[in-house]
What does this fold into?
Amino acid sequence: MPTMSKQIEHLVALFHEKRNWLVLTHNDPDPDAIGAAFGMAVLLRHFRQKGQRVTIGYGGVLGRAENQAMVRALRLRMKRVERDDVAAYDGIVLVDCQPGVGNNLTDEALLPDVVIDHHPRVRLTSAVPLHDVRPSYGATSTIVAEYLQQAGVAWEHRVATALFYGIKTDTLGLARGATQADAEMYLHLHQYVEQRIVAQIERAPLPRRYFQVLADALHSATIYGDIIIVDVHIVHRPDIISELADMFLRLEGINWSIVIGQFDETLAISVRTSSPELRAGQLVRRAVGARGSAGGHSVMAAGRIPLEGRDPVAERARLHRRFLELLGAERRRGRALLQREI
It folds into this structure.
């Protein structure tokens, strides 16, 4: 792999070849995607020539209260885009995801020019002119922050706060999947962070329907030994699935947290495990199979299945059984979290 300085030179050369650029996140962006996108936009604008434009875009929904608060508090300009909008840009930088994995608006027919990501590399990424994929890193924000540091871009508090918060959330404050590079950048950025803004983000007001979904999740949660499976039925935003998976993993005695829910005509799945050797990404890919898309890391993973006319209740039940089979727990007796043994 070329050195970082050569990667920046390659990036700048590609950037100067085209006029109208989109920095694109995955659908329903989380803080790491938001921070990495903002940092990349700052980097590109640092090298911008006359007439060049850089826009930050995302597909799906910016739903979680903390993510909305992050965008508001840092005064970030992010544009919701559809696939046709993406195709209209001259150049695309894809951050915190990769083409063709099903969680963003790019694929084989609409390849980005640049990919910056920390998830396991996929086949289609090899066709991208510039790709920097580091699965060992805990956050894409760390990679982008290294680019800014090596390019000599001054640390303005907004971009430092966005990148810091991206690293903080994706690594659980350096406790989950963080490398030495993540830790060093986290500590380096800390001196430039606006802590008042971080507090505003972390204490963002929650809407009433958040608690309605939480109540549904608590009453549907079923425990099978060290596994908890939660069917939240229909949700108002897809990213609440991952939020719940994080929460249920904190239940005493649980090593696997699996949450399934329906958003529009798609089933969303989020899996967390407390043991890296258990390989959450592999589990979700096997459970989803050819019905949808899936991916992730050893301790956290996600999947999506388009319903395409299938009965959502039957499909959620099938996934429930499939996860138990894959985890060797199909013979275990389930216990409702909030009720007596069933």
In short: The chain is about 40% helix and 20% strand. The mean pLDDT is 95. The longest helix spans residues 31-46. The radius of gyration is 20 Å.
